């Protein structure tokens, strides 16, 4: 396997990783020259070395655009550097194993309290209560009209149900914030990957242009050699004719 020596680190790398510095973007080359001043536009680097400085460039870019990087953005950059997926590392906040018993109970009560099942059951309970005290027990009713005990039960139920619903709403807000944070991290990673793809495409285009120029240069050299060979053949033919006395 053919290898080359990197002008940046002096280490040996496969020739497939060889990158000419003139094919590297100006901003990344400036970062490289800060740590390795001896690197020039005529030097050669390895792709693995160049990727580290692409990572640093992205960090500097986002630090300049959005200020100091948060833990979320650092995690996105780390996953991007390690070529790992991000979605399986995100916590959506919906895993029941991460919730306490009180939180699960609050969610169930809020879900049941906001359903038609609860409304119908509660209406049936009120009608049965009123029917028992008005018609069945008559003068022996335990809660005669105007149903003071029933009003007390309804007031207690409303007093307890309100904080439970608020607890569930707070939980829902936490889940919404977590989903928004996850969406931001995924979008940020997608933007970084798009920028890296642009860098790679630019590198490929420049590399292809360099190969085409080398091929054209080789073809020109071959044409010059053929032209010189033809001139030599023509010169030797003319000399041979003059030597034989041929006036032509």
From TrEMBL:
<feature type="transmembrane region" description="Helical">
    <location>
        <begin position="144"/>
        <end position="167"/>
    </location>
</feature>
<feature type="transmembrane region" description="Helical">
    <location>
        <begin position="118"/>
        <end position="138"/>
    </location>
</feature>
<protein>
    <submittedName>
        <fullName>DUF1003 domain-containing protein</fullName>
    </submittedName>
</protein>
<keyword id="KW-1133">Transmembrane helix</keyword>
<keyword id="KW-0812">Transmembrane</keyword>
<dbReference type="Pfam" id="PF06210">
    <property type="entry name" value="DUF1003"/>
</dbReference>
<keyword id="KW-0472">Membrane</keyword>
<dbReference type="InterPro" id="IPR010406">
    <property type="entry name" value="DUF1003"/>
</dbReference>
């Amino acid at each position: 396997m053919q290898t080359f020596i990197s002008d940046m680190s002096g280490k040996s790398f496969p020739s497939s990783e060889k990158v000419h510095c003139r094919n590297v973007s100006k901003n990344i080359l400036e970062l490289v020259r800060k740590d390795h001043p001896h690197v020039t536009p005529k030097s050669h680097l390895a792709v693995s070395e160049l990727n580290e400085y692409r990572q640093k460039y992205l960090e500097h870019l986002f630090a300049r655009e959005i200020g100091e990087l948060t833990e979320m953005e650092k995690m996105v950059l780390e996953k991007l550097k390690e070529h790992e997926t991000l979605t399986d590392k995100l916590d959506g906040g919906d895993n029941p194993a991460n919730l306490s018993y009180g939180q699960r109970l609050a969610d169930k009560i809020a879900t049941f309290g906001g359903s038609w099942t609860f409304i119908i059951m509660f209406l049936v309970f009120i009608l049965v209560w009123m029917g028992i005290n008005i018609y069945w027990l008559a003068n022996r009713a335990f809660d005669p009209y105007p149903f003071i005990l029933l009003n007390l039960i309804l007031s207690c139920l409303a007093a307890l149900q309100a904080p439970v619903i608020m607890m569930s709403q707070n939980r829902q807000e936490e889940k919404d914030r977590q989903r928004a944070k996850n969406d931001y991290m995924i979008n940020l990673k997608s933007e970084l990957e798009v920028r890296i793809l642009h860098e790679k495409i630019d590198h490929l285009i420049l590399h292809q242009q360099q190969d085409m120029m080398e091929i054209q240069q080789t073809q020109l050299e071959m044409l010059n050699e053929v032209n010189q060979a033809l001139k030599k053949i023509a010169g030797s033919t003319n000399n041979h004719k003059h030597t034989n006395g041929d006036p032509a």
